[in-house]
Design a protein that fits this description.
Blueprint lengths: L17 H11 L7 H14 L3 E5 L2 H11 L7 E5 L4 H8 L4 E5 L10 H7 L4 E7 L8 H11 L2 E5 L7 E2 L2 E2 L6 E5 L12 E5 L2 H11 L22 H11 L2 H19 L5 E2 L7 E2 L5 E5 L7 H10 L5 E2 L17 H9 E4 L7 H17 L1
Parallel strand pairs: 2-3, 2-4, 4-5, 5-8
Antiparallel strand pairs: 1-9, 6-7, 6-11, 8-9, 10-12, 12-14, 13-14
Helix pairs in contact: 1-8, 2-8, 3-4, 3-7, 5-6, 9-12
This protein binds pyridoxal-5'-phosphate (PLP).
The site of pyridoxal-5'-phosphate (PLP) has 14 residues, from helix 3 and helix 4.
Amino acid sequence: MSEHPFIHVAEPLLAGNELKYVTDCVESNWISSLGKYVQDFEQQFAAYCGARYGIATANGTVAIHLLAATLNLGPGDEVIMPSLTFVATANGIHYTGATPVFVDSETETWNIDPETVAAAITPRTKAIFAVHLYGHPADMDPLRDIAEEHGLLLFEDAAEAHGACYKGKRTGGLSDAAIFSFYGNKIITTGEGGIIVTDNEEWAKRAFFLENQGRYNDNPYWHPELAYNYRMTNIQAAIGLAQFEQIDELIAIRRRNADHYRQRLSGIKGLTLPPEAPWATNVYWMYSVLIEDDFGLSRDEVRTQLRQANIDSRPFFYPVHTLPMYNTGQSLPVAESLSAKGLNLPSGATLTPEQIDYVCDTLTNLTNKR
Ligand SMILES: *Cc1c(COP(=O)(O)O)cnc(C)c1O
């Protein structure tokens, strides 16, 4: 067993006004979902994305459900999404009774392959839900063209890609509406948390109504519809606002760490480094590599060896179409291959250059053993 202190995949970096703002919530008694931080956070984060409205939520999963509910999706409706994503993208849609329709990924960006989308469209298709996987934006222009041609809505699951850019424009502002997550390991965090951002005023009002038990402000106990309590608390938003103040630096750190990894790991046989398309700014939520056949060790063997050196890592997600509750029996070869080969190395903003060197030394030494 290694003597090196344990290295986590992702730890939050809470180096700004987090404690000050949380203390303010406690001292002022505003600890539930009323309070100034929620609105400040919503407005500032939405503006950062280039969107007019932000609706903060308890977590990212309910943001997806809330968005789907806001659009009245339900049984019989279909939403096209990549199979290679975190399960929450599919679950949030499925909670409404609508059907997630899974398509393959492209090898260049690991994101939804626009060429597979057109073939998946049926008369029941309502929307395309792109996901910006592991910090790299999806190729949105072709998706936008398909959506316009077929009269579909286009959404982004940007839970892993705060501040990532597509052709110079930030994620969250690239579609009709987007969701983000602020879970503890995301680019910025509120502990648990999420948000919908959109330019659509009607949707923003409806999402706010539905996340507030379906109430109108002037009549607090009249609930004309089945709705939810999906609100973010002022304490969450206080952490979020403090994190948001540091977002440029938090992204710069991840990009600097990715540079460091690239310098140390490029040229190793059988190791594919994460993509960055010419039109993209990757925020490297995860520093993700592919362990190819000619690396000499399998992805899972690499994981075990890293673990013995006190280095944590994560395998890629299983393609959602292979999970028991969705199991469609489809063959989506790119998603399946990426899922089998993909490994997320330690990626958090707390990583030191020494830690990255240690991870790279360990990986390089593995190649000598093969
Ligand atoms: C993190 C994440 C979510 C939302 O997760 P929560 O933990 O509920 O905030 C949704 N989609 C993707 C792709 C994610 O990575």
